[in-house]
Amino acid sequence: MTEAELLRKINGQLRAKDMLQSSVSPVTLTRHIRDPDSRTSLKCKQLHHSFLQQSLSFQPHTNSVIPDFQKLYRNFQRLSLSRQKIREPTKTKPFNLHTSHQLQRKKPSYKESKQDEDQHPVTTRHLSSLSPNTLPVYITDSAKKREASIRSSIQDRDCKRVEQEKWLQKHRHRSLAIQHSISHRAKALDPHKPLADTNKQKLRENRESDWKRSQEYASELEQMKNRVKMRAYLFEQVWKGSTVKEAERKFNCTLRQVGLTEAFIQKGNAYREITGESEQQDSEELC
């Protein structure tokens, strides 16, 4: 067993060495560089430069013989006629109408016919509208009963519809009367004013407020126009300001020449005002 184990290890090492020597990397190192002789590059080159080839390998097959279209059409018609299924026409055979051998009923009297016309006007009108070439039609008892039941059901339905219309009309009148009485009682018990009166009052107030606003706007506009008219022109304002500045400058220059200051003059004016007020008070006391 030990010898077999050693032999297995030796064989594995030898096999690994052989595989390592014969191995090739799956991805080339020059991956970004394309091999010019590869199969895909040659195919692309042949595809893009195929128009430059002088000797073309493909030779189209052309049919130089012109077909006879009329002959082909005749053959087609012959083939279609041969495939078409032809049916034999039906042959007429003599026949006997069994209704012609039936025994006719006894003709009713004038009174009976009159009663039938009064009872069944629709059927008699229908029979009179038929042409004389039609087969004789006999009304059976079951047909009469069926017609009578249909007529009675129609009459019942009409009566029910009339009764329903009358009930609906009465219900409508009753509901209108109840609604009218409820509205009168609600108006009598409701302390608030109705919506119609409040709407009228609000409309009147809104109109008055709009009129006042329009009057105020007109007065403001008139005042604005008067201010614009009374205001001096721009050149007059500039000339007035320049004259005032010139007068102030001359006044200050004269004060400097005399040796006085503006504060001294203001004090003198205040003293004069005080003395003038005291003299006025003395004269009033003397008076």
What can you tell me about this protein's structure?
This protein has about 290 residues and is an all-alpha fold. Among the domains are: about 140-190; about 220-285, no CATH class. It is about 70% helix and about 0% strand. The chain has helices spanning about 1-20, 40-50, 70-85, 110-120, 120-130, 140-190, 195-230, 235-260, 260-285. Helix 4 crosses helix 5 (about 120-130). It is flat and about 160 Å long. It starts with a helix and ends with a helix. The model is unreliable at about 120-130 (pLDDT under 50).
Write the layout of secondary structure elements.
Elements (H helix, E strand, L loop, with lengths): L1 H21 L16 H10 L20 H15 L26 H10 L1 H9 L11 H49 L5 H36 L3 H25 L3 H25 L1
Helix pairs in contact: 4-5
